[in-house]
Amino acid sequence: MATVGGQLAVRASADDVRSASEWLEQVCSEHDVPAEQILRLDLCLNEALGNIILHGGPSALKAPVHLELEIKVDGRHAQAELSVSDTGKAFNPLTAVAKNQALTLADATPGGLGLTMINGYSDRLDYDFRDGRNHLTFFVQWEASS
Amino acid sequence: MPINYNDSNAKFRLIWLSGRLDIAGTAEIEGKFAAFAATERIRVIVDLTGVNFLSSIGIRAIISNAKAQQQRGGKMVLFVGENATVAKTLELTGIATLIPTFKDMSEAEQAATQ
């Protein structure tokens, strides 16, 4: 099995979300992650950072958000796992209740779709709160070309 | 993040978005988007064929403008063409069931002007 990856620290601010996406794109492209899978990771990353910025509270600004990417290829099975670690208030997306979908536009309220996006675009999620930090990891899997 | 509109059809306004509708991209266009959507024509088609990244923040802007349009007595529909990425996100989040979404422009025009 071959494992490669990288790390990045960003601020919990809208300005740094684009930088995080550019880093993700660069590392993934260097290691031949297909564009479709990069997009899935990027969407999850944007939603995770967006949730920290919007809902993490003042403690989320105390320390950088740590990003860690690992890409593993084992024969035809390939997987990327991206961990997002922040000092915002504890939030476990695995136990959070997803927002009810509105039935009409009049009933729809903007917002609350980040978790739906992360669940929809990742193959698996892990969450842990330790050392005062949320650790959210999402996994994306695909079949590697031979 | 470009945003433009076209009033060449007298029955509706066509608003064209392109690029990344992430946090930064949405912040760039949301003021213009709201201003362009608040047209006297009250019928609006939003062309998303050039959008290559649609986050929940971008969806929030689309919902807000579609609701405002409805409250003005108007209607907003979405045109995605062959943009499978955006179509998937709209379906995944349930937006395609709230705001009429079309792959075919003639169907979008018909729905907007009904």
UniProtKB/TrEMBL annotation, chain A:
<protein>
    <submittedName>
        <fullName>ATP-binding protein</fullName>
    </submittedName>
</protein>
<feature type="domain" description="Histidine kinase/HSP90-like ATPase">
    <location>
        <begin position="11"/>
        <end position="138"/>
    </location>
</feature>
<keyword id="KW-0067">ATP-binding</keyword>
<dbReference type="InterPro" id="IPR036890">
    <property type="entry name" value="HATPase_C_sf"/>
</dbReference>
<keyword id="KW-0808">Transferase</keyword>
<keyword id="KW-0723">Serine/threonine-protein kinase</keyword>
<keyword id="KW-0547">Nucleotide-binding</keyword>
<dbReference type="GO" id="GO:0004674">
    <property type="term" value="F:protein serine/threonine kinase activity"/>
</dbReference>
<dbReference type="InterPro" id="IPR050267">
    <property type="entry name" value="Anti-sigma-factor_SerPK"/>
</dbReference>
<dbReference type="Pfam" id="PF13581">
    <property type="entry name" value="HATPase_c_2"/>
</dbReference>
<keyword id="KW-0418">Kinase</keyword>
<dbReference type="GO" id="GO:0005524">
    <property type="term" value="F:ATP binding"/>
</dbReference>
<dbReference type="InterPro" id="IPR003594">
    <property type="entry name" value="HATPase_dom"/>
</dbReference>
TrEMBL record, chain B:
<dbReference type="GO" id="GO:0043856">
    <property type="term" value="F:anti-sigma factor antagonist activity"/>
</dbReference>
<dbReference type="Pfam" id="PF01740">
    <property type="entry name" value="STAS"/>
</dbReference>
<dbReference type="InterPro" id="IPR003658">
    <property type="entry name" value="Anti-sigma_ant"/>
</dbReference>
<protein>
    <recommendedName>
        <fullName>Anti-sigma factor antagonist</fullName>
    </recommendedName>
</protein>
<feature type="domain" description="STAS">
    <location>
        <begin position="14"/>
        <end position="112"/>
    </location>
</feature>
<dbReference type="InterPro" id="IPR002645">
    <property type="entry name" value="STAS_dom"/>
</dbReference>
<comment type="similarity">
    <text>Belongs to the anti-sigma-factor antagonist family.</text>
</comment>
<dbReference type="InterPro" id="IPR036513">
    <property type="entry name" value="STAS_dom_sf"/>
</dbReference>
